[in-house]
Design brief:
The complex is a heterodimer of chains A (388) and B (144). Chain A is of the alpha/beta class. Chain A is built from ten helices and 13 strands. Chain A has two domains: 144 residues, Rossmann fold (3-Layer(aba) Sandwich); 216 residues, Vaccinia Virus protein VP39 (Rossmann fold). In chain A, strands 9-8-7-10-11-13-12 form a seven-stranded mixed sheet. Chain A has a six-stranded parallel sheet with strand order 2-1-3-4-5-6, with helices on both faces. In chain B, 77% of the residues lie in helices and 0% in strands. The chains are: A alpha/beta (388), B mainly alpha (144).
Chain lengths: 388, 144
Amino acid sequence: MYRIPTDRPEHPVFYAGRFSEEVTDAGMPADHIVLSDWDVLPAQLTSALERASVLVVLDMFSFPFESLTGDLVDVPLILLLPSGLDANFLATVFGKAAFARLGFFDRIAASDDGLWAELRRKYDLTEGQRVEVEDDRPEHAASEIRAALEAEFALHATFGEGDYEADRYWAERGDALAGNAPHRAICSVNHSPRFNKAIHRVQAKTLRPQFAAARGTQTEEVPFDVLEVGAGVGRWAASFDLAKTRFTGVDISVGMVEAARHNFPQCNFDLLGEEPVLPYGDESFDLSFSVTVMHHNPTPTKRALISEMWRVTRPGGRLMFLEDFVSGEWSARSTVYPMSVTKFVELLVEATAGQVVLDHVESIRYQHDDFTRGGLLSVSKLGVAKTW
Amino acid sequence: MSENDFYTPSELDRLRMENELLAFEVRFLKARSGGPAEVAASSVSLSRMTHLEEAETDLKLLLRRIRNSPLGLLARTNRNFRTLTDRYLDRSDDVMSKSPPQRLAYLEGAKRDLVLLLGRLGRGPLGVMFRRRKSFRTLQERYL
């Protein structure tokens, strides 16, 4: 059962280090915690970050990044780049300790476009990971970052009125969040970024080895063609070496497709029309996958999407589905259509006329649950290629 | 329930679906540890395995119901019935230790026995009484 702590809500934590007095004097809401360089001994840091929704590091030089271990790795980071330093220097000092550990849910606050572009290139960051600030002095940047975070979470979602219809709901949801709060569009919209980062970490741990296995022995000189169905803002594109992969994503929301193109300009993102028909030719991809998409759709849509994914995958290529297979009864307001793994496999066999072989099964237990909810199914497509 | 209200399935649904998921994973891992040939054998017939396992569950349920009903005493005097209960109820734990090909053979046998049992029960002197029960008719429609 998911346990939402209601008595102690999560709140942003600002590590101001040597600038704590200036940042405190600049004014912070009562529920925001400001830490100085005396507050980050390992035991103190663990306690201070216990309920942190996000950690904003305003003084990178004095922050002990090596202390972020255990549950603390799930706290999303926003790093303010120190002013007056070039990318090479920053990479030398913070490369391994800080930048290399940044994931899709972590961000960088930068005022200098050139510096940001250089770091972005060096560490495969996305445009969505930048928090743009005008003044990079900690006390001013703190106010700008705080305002950005408040704006992100002040957005009242208006989608999802009335009974649940999967395509309408996800199109409206994506469009509503794409502009101001793209990170909220991932996983669970009203849960904190920390919760979503934790879910992403568990999913990534399961998926990445399978992505590598799907690439298998294929020579690296041949581009690896990948399709994600329900790509959202494109978070899984970051799991591939994009120099050797042709990543394509398809989504039902115009806003999400635009956000994904902004994040990964080197990839291809397309809009899925009203009908669940993928706009690609037969046998176009080596890997087609979806992450928590199928369980939000009724059975006929699931069947159509699986069939389409099978059609566009090359023989010998893989299809992967990371979905929830444990759920309650469906109601008109529910966004989840329950389907057990057995039923899903039956559907998979039916939609592909049995032309698949099971490659991998892995159950997934999220850290907030006391039961196993999700699972990854990976199958290979049988058959002989139509074209050589 | 919106997507944020992480659903809490009712206890029975949750247990059943979670059990299915974990059992499916265990079956896959067992098949994989058996070697490449067994992986292929088990992978090709996923839907078939599912169907056979359902048949085995239905057979067990049917045997248990008959054994616990007032007819149980009469049924136990029949040697064939005793063989079935011995094979599928009393020694069913042995199945988990079987290799994938043995397990497949066991499940196919269970399906055959279920078809035979349904046929005999439906035709016998008590057939009318059985056919009046909806669950029995469902089984007949599914397997005969």
